[in-house]
Amino acid sequence: MDYDDMLDRALDETPDIEGSSDRFEVPDPEVRQEGNVSVYENFQNTCDVLGREDDHVMQFLQNELGTSGHIDESGRARLTGEFSVRRVSNAVDEYADEFVICSECGLPDTHFEREGGVLLLRCEACGARSATSG
Ligand SMILES: [Zn+2]
What we know:
The protein is an alpha+beta fold and 134 residues long. 34% of the residues lie in helices and 22% in strands. The chain has two domains: 26-100, Defensin A-like (2-Layer Sandwich); 104-134, no CATH class. Helix 3 (54-65) packs across helix 4 (85-99). The longest helix is centred in the C-terminal third of the chain and has 15 residues, at 85-99. The chain is elongated. The relative contact order is 0.14.
């Protein structure tokens, strides 16, 4: 059996994960201007999809956008300043890249682990662990 045969075999044995799980997709932010505040209407839903604490996502958004803000009683994120949907969307994508999606296999089946004060992202799909900046 030569190398090509082995490769074919390996490829045949790779499970077809496409279609077996929903593709992970961050919802497009709905952002509304209210005076000098950008109101992120579907913030809570986005946190649910990300599977992360809203406070943690909020902290990241504030850092990323260089502003301050808070989560209101309806679960919307209120960010001081005018931010376009695109800007907010980019920030949320950054969050997903760093804190949700496994850098090894690209799946979002991850959770946080703390080790010696470092926040690690542990992948439930492939077992990889990677350090985050959080
Ligand atoms: Zn993984």
